[in-house]
Design brief:
Number of strands: 14
Number of helices: 13
Radius of gyration: 21 Å
CATH class of the largest domain: Alpha Beta
CATH superfamily of the largest domain: Type I PLP-dependent aspartate aminotransferase-like (Major domain)
Helix content: 40-55%
Mean pLDDT: 97
Distance between the termini: 53 Å
Order of helices and strands: EHHEHEHEHEEEHEEEHHHHEEHEEHH
Strand order of the largest sheet: 2-10-9-8-5-3-4
Structural class: alpha/beta
Bound molecules: pyridoxal-5'-phosphate
């Protein structure tokens, strides 16, 4: 199809990240660059590093690298582990797979617990491995909190409990790239040692910043970790950070955006942010049920409040469907990745979004299903509206 002329209205970027950047954040970034060695910068950056802790629910340092989330993955591994160390990972989907490939490339001995890309981390499978490891050869358990490829969310506190129940000293590393600021996450209370995040999903920022929250235990272990690290060395960062500085030029413009994003999240209140994501996810799932389509996440225990991955009926191409929706309704839906390529499409419902953006997105999907001749029942949008009305009634009753 030839390129469409400029279109009225906005493009619906309904993928699970990067997510739309609110205009408040865009405007906050249109500011002159400041001197990154100045007192003004130091004050600004110290404030930011403090406020970031609130988001991770930690009292300990959060390290910020100018990198996509993948950079923080690498920092988490290279700062805590040594060549040949054994680590346990769980196959939730594409992102656990990529992190696991990285761990192997770095020279770690990865025990990858296989699964079918339709659930989150099964904490009992992790518990079994830990129990069997009497010699404590396992140095870390690394899991993805919200598997963006499948729309499955993992019970991090259960994995912590598995470590505690067996008295196992392994570190707990968690990827929250598509869950932080979408669903509740408690770095300290859940005893997580390293939490990894990126800017472009729930945090509503452009891509380019990555975050690593670090426990005192992880910091201690990092002193003897021998994997090579240079750019991603925590040590090089933490010293200058104490005074609000960086060992190299920080991503100042993105930091302006981060300041505004944190302001927005705190104005709404984190609990309200989580409740909003839960509501929008419930609406999307109501639509999927009404259409008679299947959620890629096969167990309700693991439903993600950030993204829903929907299986295409056999014989129908998810990619052709997404193309049709893009060309006709100017909406981008998330693609199926590797194992589920062309088999699922994903609706992102995270970040700067509300009931009506979701109704719009679901309307585009429902029209697309019709036009593509995908077998389904009508009424998905109605089901989502009914869900949102229920929430509105509860909220009204509370306010009265
Ligand atoms: C997006 C994503 C990543 C990769 O992050 P990049 O910023 O693309 O490097 C890793 N893990 C999860 C769960 C993600 O959603």
């Amino acid at each position: 199809m030839s390129k469409k002329p400029n279109r009225a209205g906005r493009h619906f970027l309904q993928i699970p990240g990067p997510t739309p950047v609110p205009s408040r954040i865009e405007r906050a970034m249109v500011r002159p660059i400041m001197d990154h060695r100045s007192q003004e910068f130091s004050d600004f950056s110290l404030r930011l590093l403090e406020e970031l802790k609130v988001l991770f629910k930690t009292k300990h340092p959060v390290i910020m690298f100018p990198a996509s989330g993948t950079g923080a993955w690498e920092a988490a591994l290279t700062n805590t582990l040594s060549a040949g160390d054994k680590i346990v990972m769980f196959e939730t989907g594409q992102f656990s797979m990529l992190w696991q490939v990285m761990a192997k490339r770095l020279g770690l001995n990865v025990e990858y617990i296989e699964s079918d890309w339709r659930i989150g981390v099964d904490s009992s499978a992790i518990a079994e491995r830990l129990k069997a490891d009497k010699a404590h050869e396992i140095k870390a358990v690394a899991i993805v909190h919200n598997e963006t490829a499948t729309g499955c969310c993992s019970p991090v506190a259960e994995v912590r409990k598995a470590l505690d129940d067996t008295g196992h000293p392994a570190l707990l590393l968690v990827d929250t790239i598509s869950s932080l600021a979408c669903v509740d996450y408690q770095h300290d209370a859940w005893g997580v040692d390293v939490t990894v995040c990126g800017s472009q999903k729930g945090m509503m920022l452009p891509p380019g910043l990555s975050f690593t929250a670090v426990s005192p235990k992880a910091l201690e272990v990092s002193k003897s970790a021998k994997l090579p690290k240079a750019f991603f060395s925590w040590d090089d960062m933490l010293g200058p950070n104490e005074k609000g500085f960086y060992p190299y030029t920080p991503a100042i413009t993105l930091m302006y955006g981060l300041e505004e994003a944190l302001k927005m999240l705190h104005e709404e209140g984190l609990d309200n942010v989580f409740a909003r994501h839960a509501k929008l996810a419930a609406g999307v799932r109501a639509a999927v049920d009404a259409w008679g389509l299947e959620n890629q996440c096969r167990d309700g225990k693991y439903y993600s409040n950030a993204v829903t991955s929907i299986r295409m009926p056999d014989g129908h191409s998810a990619d052709a469907f997404r193309k049709l929706v893009l060309e006709n309704f100017n909406m981008s839906l998330g693609a199926g990745l590797s194992k589920v390529a062309d088999k699922v499409f994903r609706i992102g419902h995270l970040g700067d979004t509300n009931e009506l953006t979701i109704i719009g997105a679901l309307g585009g999907v429902e029209m697309g299903l019709d036009l593509a001749g995908v077998p389904h029942r009508a009424g998905g949008v109605d089901a989502a509206m009914a869900e949102f009305k229920k929430y509105a009634q509860v909220e009204q009753a509370k306010a009265a």
